[in-house]
Each structure stands twice: as C-alpha cells, then as structure tokens.
Design a protein that fits this description.
6-stranded mixed sheet; Molybdopterin biosynthesis moea protein, domain 2; 30% strand; binds adenosine monophosphate; alpha/beta; Molybdopterin biosynthesis moeA protein, domain 3; 8 helices; binds magnesium ion
C-alpha cells in the first residue's frame, strides 16, 4: 500500500506505464449468461461459436437466369436447351433435369441436383420453351457451393469478440439463436465539487452546471456497461468516504471526477489512500495530469480530473482500455495516422500532450490536421468540433506548419 506522502514524491507515470499497471491489476469478469441473439449486440462472447450448419446449406443460384448441366453442352459454342420448369427462392424445382433441358432459376433458389451451372438471364434469348445460350459456360458458374461461406462446425466468432451487427447477421444465417456472453459491468459515476449543480436549476454566483456526469454517461453508453449515476458529492472528506465505500460494495467500478488534484478541497486521493489502495496517481500527460487509479475492496476506482477536457482524455486513454479489459473483450488499439500539420502548435517539453485537432483529407488523399482551437482543459467547444487528438510526445517542443504529426481519431465521421 502506498501512503499519501510517498505518492506526492513519486514521478509522473507515462500513459504506457499506466496501461501496464492497469493490465496487471484488472481481472476480467468471468460470469456469463445466455442471451437471445436479438439482445446480444455489443456484448462480449464468453465462448467461441461454431456453425451448426454449413453456410449455405444447399447449393443455390447467385443470379436470376437458367440452370443446366454443363456436361450437356459443348463449351465455346452456342447451344439451345428446352425449358422444363422453374426453381424459385423458397420453392425449389421438383422434377428431374434431363440432357438438353434447363430450368428457370432465381437468385437464392436451390440449384437442381443435376445442374451445375447458371447463366444470367441477360445472356440468353427466349423463344417460348426454347432457350438459346450464346457460349462460354463453365461448370459451377453462378452456383453458390454448400459451405462456401462457412463449413459445418467452422468458426463463426472467436471467444471474447464484442459482437457487431455483422457478427449477429453471421450467427443468424448459421441458425444460432442464442449466445453465451460475459455479464455487464456495473459502474457507479459521481461528480465531486461544492460548485456543481444539476441542470434545470438557475445558476447562483460561484456555481456551474455539472457536465462531467453527462459526458461520462455518453462515453459509457455501451451494452457492456450498466451505469448508475450517483450524483454530486460535496468537497467533504467524510461525505466522499461514505459515498465511495458504500458504492464499492455494490459496483464493479467507481468513476468520479473532480477533487483529484492537490488543492485544499481535493480529497479523492486521500480518501482512496485511507479506505482503499492506490495503484497510481498522476500521469505525465496534458491535459489530465491528476488521475487516481486504485481499488476499494473488490471495486476498481478511477478518480478523474474535474476539468471536462481532462476527464475526456483520461477516460479515453486510461479508463476505456481498463474497462475493455474488465469486460473480457479482445483488446483493441486506436488507429494512429500520420498527418501534415497546417497550424503551428505550442508545447513545452515534459509531458505527452493530446491536443485537440481537426483532421481533413484532400482530394488527392493527403491527411491534413489543424488545431481545433483553444487548448485549455476547460474548453469543451474545441473538443466538440475536434475529430482527433494530435499526439505530441513528451520531448516535443512545438510543431511548425508543415511538420508531420501523429494523430488518433476519436470521431471517425467526416
Ligand atoms: P477539480 O478537479 O475539482 O480541481 O476541478 C477542476 C475544474 O473542473 C474546476 O474548474 C471545476 O469547477 C471543474 N469541474 C469539476 N467537476 C466538474 C463537473 N462535474 N462538471 C464540470 N466542471 C467540473
Ligand atoms: Mg473540485
């Protein structure tokens, strides 16, 4: 256990070091539950899913056209076949196809057993029941083979996959109607600060609206998270101790914002030192230096800075990967790209910075990034128009117009 005094003297952690500590500290939830496929979107698979059926499970046509046996015709020469019936999607052709015959067929319809080839309707001439084909047939053309997508028993989705809409469609097409997923994580969120009031009340002097719980509610909106908004706690050590220890008994995770620094009214670190265990405090990043991570009993605790931009950056860089690990999902890395900076950026050496930027792409595909404006940790408007972080390493001492910078997208819609 670390005491408050030695903590104050400990060096600032880099994001990479903090993430190493998180990886070592967090145990993924192991409980699982069976849910219907309809409700599985965004949940994490507790076990791999294999296909009970081959996909497709019958040979079917990829086109609207005419089906026949390719061995009946001489390739490279025009030929004529007699039409003897139709295979509809959902209503297969019932008869037997003989030499010299063909069947009208529609996309998705079962290809008759004797047939192995489908020619598109655009490539034939009809004359009553006589169908004239120009030439160039190949066995298996436009015929979807049994199991060509997934073999029976083949892997559909890996264990720990967070299910997307496409995964759900894949499972549905294989006939899988329910899946075993890890249980959701119960997360309590608090704001701390005497100045905070809820929306809907008039602002008295010295008060501000609490925006961080709204921010966190949005950032945590995910099928894997069950959020309880436990309101605002005053800047009072006893109130914080009571609120955090009570929540720690009922939730997997507590996320609080504010009171995380070293001001006279910043008690979060002290409370965690007394009623739990601190793993780390303070990062070598800007914005977001004061961030407390630790545990209270079996509950993980994240004390984020109060400034909204700092809260967002520390959430995305530290809390989001930690929560992802807790859900048991396969770890993912944010995509990083190199872009040409079109504005000069100020920075002094010492801390890694996540400046807010606006990424654009030129007609020729070049990536350009400009500052999103004021970089204060209270400036939500610049964060709102930004679509990326400009990642400046700790030893960087500023960026000139035309320099290449590393960026990380957070809103990938342009
Ligand atoms: P603190 O981390 O408590 O020192 O707060 C740093 C700054 O963030 C102060 O200007 C606070 O008023 C502001 N702040 C703290 N909590 C919130 C919140 N929930 N919503 C908006 N601003 C906040
Ligand atoms: Mg405060």
């Amino acid at each position: 256990m670390i005491d408050s005094c030695s903590l104050e003297k400990s060096p600032l952690l880099t994001v990479d070091n903090a993430l190493e500590k998180i990886r070592a500290a967090i145990q993924p939830v192991s409980d699982s539950e069976t849910v219907t496929l309809k409700t599985a979107l965004g949940h994490v698979l507790a076990e791999a899913v294999y296909s009970p059926n081959p996909i497709p499970h019958e040979r079917n046509s990829a086109m609207d056209g005419y089906a026949f046996a390719s061995c009946d015709v001489i390739n490279e020469q025009p030929f004529t076949l007699t039409l003897i019936g139709t295979s509809w999607a959902g209503k297969p052709f019932q008869g037997q196809l003989q030499a010299g015959q063909c069947v009208r067929i529609f996309t998705g319809a079962v290809v008759p057993e004797q047939a192995d080839s489908v020619i598109m309707q655009e490539h034939i001439q009809r004359d009553g029941q006589q169908v004239h084909f120009s030439a160039h047939t190949k066995p298996y053309q436009n015929v979807r083979a049994i199991g060509e997508d997934v073999q029976q028993g083949g892997l559909l989705c890996t264990q720990s996959k967070k299910l997307t809409a496409v995964d759900m469609a894949l499972l549905a097409t294989a006939g899988v109607s329910e899946v075993s997923v890890r249980r959701a994580i119960n997360i309590a969120i608090f704001s701390t600060g005497d100045e905070l009031i809820a929306l809907g009340q008039p602002l008295a002097t010295g008060q501000i609206y609490d925006s961080n719980r709204t921010l966190l509610t949005g950032l945590l909106s995910d099928a894997c998270y069950q959020i309880a908004d436990l309101g605002v706690i005053a800047d009072n050590k006893h109130a914080l101790t009571d609120a955090f220890t009570a929540a720690a008994k009922n939730y997997d995770v507590i996320i609080s914002t504010g009171g995380a620094s070293v001001g006279e009214a910043d008690y979060v670190k002290d409370v965690l030192t007394e009623c739990g265990q601190i793993n780390f405090w303070k990062l070598a990043i800007k914005p977001g230096k004061p961030l407390t991570f630790g545990t209270i009993g079996a509950c993980y605790f994240f004390g984020l800075p109060g400034n909204p931009v700092s809260a967002q950056v520390t959430f995305q860089k530290i809390v989001a990967p930690a929560l992802q690990q807790l859900t048991g999902a396969t770890a993912t890395q944010p995509l990083q790209l190199t872009a040409t900076c079109t504005t000069a950026l100020k920075k002094s050496a010492g801390r890694q910075e996540f400046q807010r930027g606006i990424l654009t792409q030129t007609a020729t595909g070049e990536l350009l990034v400009a500052t999103a404006g004021q970089q204060g940790s209270n400036i939500l408007s610049a964060l709102s128009i930004a679509n990326c972080y400009i990642m400046l390493p700790s030893d960087n001492q500023g960026v000139a117009v035309g320099d290449k910078v590393l960026i990380e997208l957070f809103n990938v819609f342009f």
